[in-house]
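Technical annex B. To support the medicinal chemistry partners, we prepared a structural model of the target in complex with zinc ion, based solely on the information shown next.
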Amino acid sequence: MPAKHDINKVGVESSDFPILCETCLGPNPYVRMTKQEFGNECKICNRPFTVFRWNPGAGARYKKTEICNTCAKIKGVCQTCLLDLEYGLPVQVRDAALGRKQDAPTSDINKQFYIQNLEAQMANSADGQVFDSDAANRAGREMLKNMARTDPHYKRNRPHICSFFVKGECKRGGECPFRHELPKENELSKQNLVDRYYGKNDPVAKKILREQAESKGMKAPEDKTVTTLLFLGLPVTTEAEIRASLAGACPFVKPTEVRSLTIVEASHCAFVNFVNRPLAERVAEALSAQNGIEVSGKRAKVVWGRSRPQKGKGPSAAGSASASGSGSVTAV
Ligand SMILES: [Zn+2]
Ligand SMILES: [Zn+2]
Ligand SMILES: [Zn+2]
């Protein structure tokens, strides 16, 4: 039975077994681990925690837990690689697909407060889950299942690349425990653990989200002035309803960041214009991971608007509803 954490005893964290994904654990279920109580500070909450260290298999590098048991449970991630345990995906991808809010504390004190708060919520909820699963949308879960990386990727456990070899200076030759190869442009290596944990600025997640959006015909237009998305196949609805749907699906969008919202009832579509391009891209990626957006009980398709020159006004975002087969539509 899982022990409830006593939040009055913060700063003390001891556990018998780490929370690990299959990849980090390695193929041998009987792997030997060394355990060091209060061996290090958790990289997220800074509290001392039990550090486990093990070798995940022949030819692999030693791995150790980087964050505490509690922080791992709160986000449902592996204590070593910080990827989601259920889908093997970065937190940022999972949360975009499920429309989960990503709030992260900023200062050290806030950090402790934030984790303790979630810890208390977790202890009080029946199933130990912090997040309301009703709020998570079904389409997002479906999409995550398709994107899931469930087979273990043992390649991730290889030794790191030898930095001396890269500079042409390694004299250890075959004895060298590190990999003698030149690094490829690797986005993973630039990752910051805290960002990965909170699902912010995660280059791997960005790549995955971009690729899945592109695979669904949601490639962001070359023309960077396009900041409009079209919602197609809408039922009869109102601007307020669309805004509420958007707030639910993409909680990172502030109401003021929707520059304009134009419903074209005859074509059952709406033009949603955002204040900047990075935001529009983020919304496009999240909504494509959610397979569209549910508005007034119906799931609408989301596509990018098109740039089209307008007389005297310079390029402005407009869209074509030809994708829905109802002829052309012009933004007002
Ligand atoms: Zn922690
Ligand atoms: Zn892992
Ligand atoms: Zn070397």
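Notes passed to the chemistry partners:
Residues 162, 164-165, 170, 172, 176, 178, 180 surround zinc ion (ligand 3) (CB under 6 Å).
Strands lie at 33-41, 48-54, 63-64, 228-232, 258-264, 269-274, 293-295, 298-304, 306-310, 314-318.
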